Amino acid sequence: MLPARADRNTLISALRARRLDRTLTSTLPDVRPRDEQAVAPTGVPAVDGRLGGGLPRGQLSEVVGARSSGRTSLLLQAIASATQRGELVALVDALDMLDVPTAVAAGVDLSRLLWVRGHVALHAGFCRDFAQRSMEQAVRAVGLVLQAGNVGLVVLDVAEAPPDAVRRLPFTTWLRLQRMVEGSQTAAVLVGSAPMARSSAGVSIRLQRATAGAAATVSSTHARFSGALFEGLSIEAGVSRARVQPVDSSAIALTTRAAHHV
After folding, report:
1. pTM of the model
2. What is the enclosing helix (H) or strand (E) of 63?
3. What is the C-alpha separation between 123 and 53, in angstroms, rounded?
4. Would you give the distance in Å from CA 169 to the centre of its chain?
5. Which of 11, 204, 225, 233 has the highest Cβ tally under 10 A?
6. Is 226 inside any structural domain?
7. H or E stretch including 28?
8. Contact 251, 237 (CB under 8 A)
9. What domain range is 59 assigned to?
10. Are residues 39 and 49 in contact, defined by beta-carbon separation less than 8 angstroms?
């Protein structure tokens, strides 16, 4: 039996009184396509078209994919797009994985990038305590950046961290970050190898290598290897958001640019 409307309204009021109304899909903001006041374009037309213009500002979103899934290519394009708009970008690089020449080649304006470097870890899964400390320090750094404000895009990159280290972070970690970014003009993005969290109006972008059949129709560019750089890999991207938003489950076709870890 469905609850009475009065009971529903009472629950909604109680949630709002405790500042938990961000969990209600009925309170999701109306994001107008191509409105840069509400979204931060990634600079990838196919992705921005599916997102309604870009990553939602004032929300926590995530980019998820394995190695060679295109996650770094998309990340660098989003950072480059923001810096080229004149915005300040903060990249909290938990394990110090950013390749600066690749970032510059992607169009990132380094003068507008705050790069918070974690500890170098060639084998991040070797020491459990080390990996856990790295995650906790990275989260604290993101919190400080969000509290400071005036940043168009904040990225927490834990893609190369051991999955267990990320899973051991309390779920309240993501709730705190969402509260910090809520109502601001900042788009906050988590980058990882597996789903972590997103806010009620945030998005999840899932990346994977295209299947052989799909790759043939996506691009005639063949993957090539030059030194340590891969380029021309065909990628499929899917976007998830709250159910009240229009859903298009078809895959987006992308082609990577050169990067050490794409």
Report:
1. 0.75
2. strand 59-64
3. 38
4. 17
5. 233
6. yes
7. none
8. yes
9. 32-255
10. no
Asked if residue 2 belongs to a domain, the reply is no
For residue 126, the SS3 value is: coil
Identify whether 19 is part of a domain: no
DSSP 21: G
Q: Is residue 211 part of a domain?
A: yes
Q: What SS3 state is found at 222? A: coil
Rounded to an integer, what distance in angstroms lies between the CA atom of residue 73 and that of residue 68? 9
Which residues lie below 8 Å from residue 35, measured CB to CB, with a gap of 6+? Answer: 53
DSSP code of residue 132: H
Residue written as tokens 């190369």?
Answer: 160
Identify whether the C-beta of residue 73 lies closer than 8 Å to the C-beta of residue 259: yes
| Arithmetic mean of pLDDT, 194-219 | 69
CB 52 within 8 A of CB 39: yes
Phi, then psi, of 218 in degrees rounded to 5: -80, -50
At 103-161, the pLDDT tens digits run: 999 999 999 999 999 876 555 455 666 778 888 899 999 999 999 989 999 999 999 88
Cα 257 off chain centre by: 18
User: Would you state the pLDDT for residue 181?
Assistant: 94
What 3 state SS string does 81-116 have? Answer: HHHHCCCCEEEEECCCCCCHHHHHHCCCCHHHEEEE
